[in-house]
Write a structure and sequence with these properties.
With 324 residues, this protein is an alpha/beta fold. The protein folds into two domains: 152 residues, Medium-chain alcohol dehydrogenases, catalytic domain (Quinone Oxidoreductase, Chain A, domain 1); 144 residues, 3-Layer(aba) Sandwich (Rossmann fold), CATH 3.40.50. Helices cover 31% and strands 27% of the residues. Helix 7 links the parallel strand 11 and strand 12. Helix 3 packs across helix 4, helix 3 packs across helix 10 and helix 9 packs across helix 10. It comes from Pyruvatibacter mobilis.
Length: 324
């Protein structure tokens, strides 16, 4: 089968090749999936660059979430059968025509979604759910400020925040992105290039945002400290800007807010029971059609490097996927 292979780490995503590799029969407790779509996520880029906390041995195939059809099951598997449509959570291996993975990492694909949509909803909406529900304790009537709102995890936070009854302020870096966010239900949109702290305070009645969802870091985090409400929760999702910010601890003291770290996957690994509840919650919303990722573009497998570069260069709105 064909697979994208990373044979050397590269800052500019150049050491990515297309190769023919063998896929063995699925082992004990495994299923074999014919992959139809694989979402491209920021951690995929970081793994290719050697910057992610999980560093797979070389060579490896990137791709951490996929959707497809089961074509074979290994010994001991009874929950799935050939022909079932599934979504699969993978650490690597999704950018290929097929993959073997533990059956426990698969779930039934939502009937309301296409393969492309199904491949791209789990990571984004799980991150948003753990952030806003488990860690941010967002309440109806509160003001939620979402940074990087046109990205996959940002757009998921906008969707979920609206469902939870919050007033959602979304920031992004272009008018095209802001227009999409407004169409998807954000109450207010702000171009982050113009600054946002004064406008956020104005929109929040002078008190600032109760919850701030920040996957960007850098200058965005610094300015967020200036427009958070008393008792607010500043959620640290990631550092897409490339700079990990610092904060003087007198600021949380004086303004009475909390800085809260969010790692959705680690949350589930440390508390498997609640982790299963989190997955069940987003799957229930997906089954009802109340959440649906925005798929900006779909690339063939041999253009996977271009798909990753588009994400790296901030050209993506919502999700970009690779379709083997």
């Amino acid at each position: 089968m064909r697979a994208v292979r990373v044979n050397a780490l590269s800052e500019d995503i150049t050491a990515v090749d297309m190769e023919e590799i063998d896929l063995p029969a699925p082992g004990e407790g495994e299923v074999q999936i014919r992959i139809r779509a694989c979402a491209v996520n920021f951690p995929d880029l970081l793994m290719v660059q050697g910057k992610y906390q999980f560093k797979p041995p070389l060579p490896f195939t990137p791709g951490m979430e996929a959707a497809g059809d089961i074509v074979a099951v290994g010994p001991g598997v009874s929950a799935f059968a050939p022909g079932d449509k599934v979504v699969a959570g993978l650490r690597t291996g999704g950018m290929a025509e097929g993959a073997n993975t533990p059956a426990a990492s698969c779930r039934a694909m939502p009937e309301a979604m296409s393969y492309e949509e199904a491949a791209g909803y789990t990571t984004a909406y799980l991150t948003a759910y753990v952030s806003l529900v488990r860690r941010g304790h967002l309440e109806a009537g509160e003001t939620l400020l979402v940074h990087g709102a046109a990205g996959g995890v940002g757009m998921a936070a906008v969707d979920l925040g609206k469902q939870m009854g919050a007033t959602v302020i979304a920031t992004a870096s272009s008018q095209e992105k802001l227009d999409v966010l407004a169409d998807r239900g954000a109450d207010h949109v702000i171009n982050v290039a113009d600054g946002f702290k004064d406008r956020v305070k104005e929109l929040a009645g002078g008190r600032g945002a109760d919850v701030i969802y920040d996957p960007v870091g850098g200058d965005v985090f610094d300015e967020s400290v200036r427009c958070i409400a008393w008792g607010g929760r500043l959620l640290v999702i990631g550092f897409a800007s490339g700079r990990i910010p610092d904060i003087s601890v007198n600021m949380p003291l004086i303004k009475g807010f909390s800085v809260v770290g969010v790692r959705a996957g680690e949350y589930g690994r440390r508390d498997p029971e609640k982790g299963a509840e989190n997955i069940a919650a987003i799957d229930a919303m997906a089954a009802k059609g109340t959440i649906r990722p925005y798929v900006y573009a779909s690339f063939p497998l041999d253009q996977a490097a271009e798909a990753m570069c588009q994400l790296r260069d901030r050209r993506v709105i919502g999700k970009v996927v690779v379709t083997p």
